[in-house]
Design a protein that fits this description.
The complex is a heterodimer.
Chain A: H1 2-19, H2 31-37, H3 40-54, H4 67-82, H5 85-102
Helix pairs in contact in A: 4-5
Chain B: H1 3-13, H2 15-31, H3 39-48, H4 52-63, H5 68-78, H6 80-93, H7 98-106, H8 110-121, H9 129-154, H10 168-178, H11 185-200, H12 208-235
Helix pairs in contact in B: 1-9, 2-4, 2-9, 2-10, 3-9, 4-5, 6-8, 8-9, 11-12
Chain lengths: 108, 236
């Protein structure tokens, strides 16, 4: 029973965080805040991607056999040149799995 | 575009992120029993909380014998970044009635946020972009339930999916979304600062480094943008 209460507590806390601003439809942000919110996607996504490439297992991996880094750099190049989401995902994933396979990092 | 079109596009666009989440759902389902959760409680946590990072940290804390209050407090801190997404999406959903805003908020994960803000940034006059939001959120949600269930049912019998590196699908997708957004100098600087802060704060617990990185990126972006427009104003 205690565990269920804990789960309900987590539900309430998580939901209230996600609903925090949706709850106030009449709220209009000041110009400065609105300007700042424009930077949320780029800042957050970059902050997830870059450590994911450089520290895929939680430790620095500036190594030539780091497929996350190499395929990630390739994906960045594809994205910058084509601005095409699907091409970036496909190119990045193909390169990633080919590299992992070549490095003997796949469990096959 | 019609409602069903938007809905299906949402489910389709989030697909790489859905695939990337499969190993984590399975691992969560496998590990939760070690923290004393019954199969129903494990399913219940995925179905009701629906927050991967918070769920993992919760079972780690529970396995370590930490009290419920600390788990709840940690959940709050780990999920703080969602308030940022909530603020960022508010201008796009505020016209919707509460019976739309509430479920959409429930499904507002990192992954959903990435593809949804990408959809809203495309300035066509579709009136049904919230159906895209719904499709993306539901696809992510159903997959999280299914992969948690697979983890519970088959546990360690599932081949080691984590070693495949399916999580790279998320990295590639986020790159594909973020890089084309870096069109102005403030945007590029914002990304660079966010990356540096994220690396420097990597050891911070509970995703606090991610928040620090986001705030760093936002402040630098706004600062440069304002400086540029002030210079323009001075020239004119």
């Amino acid at each position: 029973m205690d565990t269920w209460l804990l789960i309900l507590g987590m539900l309430v806390i998580t939901f209230l965080t996600r609903y925090s601003f949706f709850a106030w439809p009449r709220l209009r942000f000041p110009h400065l805040v609105e300007q700042g919110l424009h930077y949320v996607p780029v800042a957050v996504l970059t902050a997830i991607v870059v450590p994911g490439m450089l520290m895929p297992t939680g430790e620095w991996a500036l190594r030539w056999d780091n497929a996350y880094l190499l395929a990630g750099v390739l994906a960045i190049v594809i994205a910058a040149l084509t601005r095409h989401l699907l091409a970036t995902i496909a190119g990045g994933l193909v390169a990633f799995f080919l590299l992992r396979w070549a490095f003997g990092q796949l469990p096959i | 575009m019609s409602r069903s079109h938007e809905f299906l596009n949402g489910a389709r666009d989030i697909l790489p992120l859905v695939v990337g989440a499969v190993p984590f759902g399975i691992i969560f389902g496998t590990l939760a029993s070690g923290a004393g959760l019954s199969p129903w409680q494990t399913m219940g946590m995925s179905a009701l909380v629906f927050a991967g990072s918070a769920q993992f940290i919760a079972i780690t804390l529970l396995a370590g014998g930490v009290g419920a209050l600390v788990v709840l407090l940690t959940t709050f801190v780990v999920n703080l970044r969602h308030a940022l997404y909530s603020a960022s999406m508010q201008p796009f959903v505020r016209h919707l009635p509460a019976h739309w805003r509430m479920p959409l908020a429930f499904w507002l994960t990192d992954e959903a946020y990435a593809v949804i803000q990408h959809r809203y940034a495309r300035e066509d006059d579709s009136r049904y972009k919230h159906w895209f939001f719904l499709g993306a959120g539901l696809a992510m949600y159903l997959n999280w339930q299914a992969s948690t269930a697979v983890g519970i049912a088959f546990g360690r019998a599932v081949p080691d999916l984590a070693s495949w590196g399916l999580d790279f699908a998320m990295i590639a997708t986020f790159i594909g979304i973020a890089v084309p957004m870096m069109r102005t100098r403030p945007q590029v600087a914002s990304a660079a600062v966010a990356a540096l802060v994220a690396l420097a704060t990597w050891s911070w617990p509970y995703k606090l480094g991610l928040i620090a990185a986001a705030i760093g990126g936002i402040v630098v972006g706004v600062w440069l943008e304002r400086r540029a427009s002030a210079e323009k104003g001075a020239l004119a």
